[in-house]
Design goal:
single chain
Amino acid sequence: LGKVVLALALTVVAAAEPGAAVAVRGEIQSALMKLNKHPNIKTWVKQPGGADTYENLTIKYVPGHNPDLVLFDGDAEVERIDLTKLGAPTTAEHLHSLMKEKGLVLKSEL
């Protein structure tokens, strides 16, 4: 079928300090086959209650790519985190904590 890319473009503006706004968004980049090797990350990315709960987080499937969280300020990449190196086992709670720490916004908080 060729390369399958799923990308949803959602951006939320979050205030870093009063009066200062910074565009923040995150993207999980991974190959489907690489997700299969990390079942906890795969479940969090694909099942309800995980990545889908964040307004400014998208999923992009990239052939051959390890699961990374890529953070952007506007269109500029500002940080890349290999989710497979967070420690074992990587739990849903750990991933939610990381997303909040990095400024990603839960849909329920809007």
